[in-house]
Amino acid sequence: MKLTENFSLKEMTQSQTALKNNIDNEPNAEQIENIKHLCQTILQPLREDFELPIKITSGFRSPELCELIGSKPTSQHCANNGAAADFEIPGVDNKKVFKHIIENLPIDQAILEYYDESDINSGWIHVSWSPNPRGQALTKDKEGYKTWQ
């Protein structure tokens, strides 16, 4: 199922861990709508802004998958809405992408995770969508979460 011009439901739900462990990682109809909104309001505009493909490393996670990988059941990848994705744009500094997101897109939450200033390809970005976006911007490293400054 195509969600936008450049994003499919398959890429937003694929998980090697789920496949290896025979876990059903299919979202329900409400979650599919939320994933579609994430793609329409954040990921597709970001792809158009940078004119480069986006590599989704983690999208929707079923409760069973969340438990297996040690993710909280309240994670926005799972929970009630399922509208979160971890990604990167290969070859583009994650910090540059992160700044663009928080300055230009209607995010619920964006997290620059495990970024190292000495390596533009380090870490990844987490984004989430909500009908009532908080605009929350954070960083995360081995010490935990911090508000973006």
SS elements, strand count: 6
Look up the CATH topology.
Muramoyl-pentapeptide Carboxypeptidase, domain 2
Helix content: 25-40%
Radius of gyration: 14 Å
Assembly annotation = single chain
The shape is globular
Short description:
This protein is of the alpha+beta class and 149 residues long. It is built from five helices and six strands.
What can you see in these coordinates?
The protein is of the alpha+beta class. The protein has one domain: Muramoyl-pentapeptide Carboxypeptidase, domain 2 (2-Layer Sandwich). Helix content is 34%, strand content 19%. The chain contains five helices and six strands. The protein has helices at 9-13, 16-20, 29-50, 63-69, 94-104, and strands at residues 55-58, 84-88, 109-113, 124-128, 136-141, 144-147. A six-stranded mixed β-sheet has the order 1-2-4-3-5-6. A hairpin with a 2-residue loop joins strand 5 (136-141) and strand 6. The longest helix is centred in the N-terminal third of the chain and has 22 residues, at 29-50. The chain is globular. The model has no long low-confidence stretch (mean pLDDT 93).
Secondary-structure map:
Blueprint: H1 9-13, H2 16-20, H3 29-50, E1 55-58, H4 63-69, E2 84-88, H5 94-104, E3 109-113, E4 124-128, E5 136-141, E6 144-147
Parallel strand pairs: 3-5
Antiparallel strand pairs: 1-2, 2-4, 3-4, 5-6
Tag the structure with descriptive keywords:
about 150 residues, alpha+beta, Muramoyl-pentapeptide Carboxypeptidase, domain 2, six-stranded mixed β-sheet, 5 helices, 6 strands, about 35% helix, globular
